[in-house]
Amino acid sequence: MGIRQYKPTSAGRRAGSVSDFAECTSPKVNAPEKSLLVPRKKKGGRNHHGIVTTRFRGGGHKQMLRLVDFKRKKDGIEATVVSIEYDPCRSARIALVQYTDGEKRYILAPDGLKAGDKVASGEDCEPRLGMCMPLSKIPLGMAVHCVELTPGRGGQICRSAGCSATLGARDKGLALLTMPSGEVRKVSTKCRATIGSVSNPDHMNISMGKAGRMRWKGRKPHNRGTSQNPVDHPMGGGEGRTAGGRDPCSKTGVLAKGGKTRKKRKPGNKSIVRRRPAGPFQTGVS
């Protein structure tokens, strides 16, 4: 896998780059498993009342949602990787696996998994790439992804391209996981995780090159608050370019820099052993 540059035939081509899709089994053939596809309805950032709750969303190319198996509950049955495919709805690649009983499912593809490999799930599996096992059975020090926070609920964390958590220790039914952000969190050893890191680690190095590619992804231009009118944003108004006249904030007045956004009474706070390192705005570094 890698990044491919185009010939600089235009300004957008000169600055833009794309994935070479080298890890995909058939990179030039878009033929997903039809039985695992459902239409993805566009919402444009609006809730069921029609109110915009997420700004600057809308448009974008039509997509079909791939039904990915995040629970991996089919224990004791070996599956063969049929193909590694591109998923337009996520940054990682997905793998189409076929079990010995004939059933096909999509799973998140770990980095290094290829067509023809064997994967399985359960407590008695061999701890190798692509195996889904409880944290109590995974050797310490291994990289894992698609980790459950509640047993049986399905993988919730470390699902984007290139992500992985490190299994540090186990004690009294709890496992310590070091997250990609540096946070150390306690998770029940009954929770399942998949061995390996998520595929497509070069996703973060891709340059869009032009604004049109973001529109294809359903992202509209993000307007600065200072460029808007006073009725539209707290930092709007004024003659010419202004500094905003107050601390940076959101459209609803929530401070954007330096303030903590995590709820103090959030139930998951007791599971955090060490917080992630503070960003530049929290430490006062400009």
TrEMBL record:
SMART domains given for it? Ribosomal_L2, Ribosomal_L2_C
Residue ranges crossing the lipid bilayer per the database entry: none
State the GO CC annotations.
Answer: large ribosomal subunit
PROSITE patterns recorded: RIBOSOMAL_L2
Q: Which GO terms describe its biological process?
A: cytoplasmic translation
Q: Where is this region: Disordered?
A: 196-286
Large ribosomal subunit protein uL2 C-terminal domain span? 127-255
Start-end of Basic residues biased regions: 212-223, 259-277
All residue ranges annotated as the Large ribosomal subunit protein uL2 RNA-binding domain in the record: 45-121
Instruction: Name any one Pfam family assigned in the record.
Output: Ribosomal_L2_C
Keywords per UniProt: Ribonucleoprotein, Ribosomal protein, RNA-binding, rRNA-binding
Which Gene Ontology terms cover its molecular function? rRNA binding; structural constituent of ribosome; transferase activity
Query: Tell me, how does this one assemble?
Result: Part of the 50S ribosomal subunit. Forms a bridge to the 30S subunit in the 70S ribosome.
Q: Which protein family is it in?
A: Belongs to the universal ribosomal protein uL2 family.
Purpose: One of the primary rRNA binding proteins. Required for association of the 30S and 50S subunits to form the 70S ribosome, for tRNA binding and peptide bond formation. It has been suggested to have peptidyltransferase activity; this is somewhat controversial. Makes several contacts with the 16S rRNA in the 70S ribosome.
UniProt name for this protein: Large ribosomal subunit protein uL2
This protein's species is: Fimbriiglobus ruber
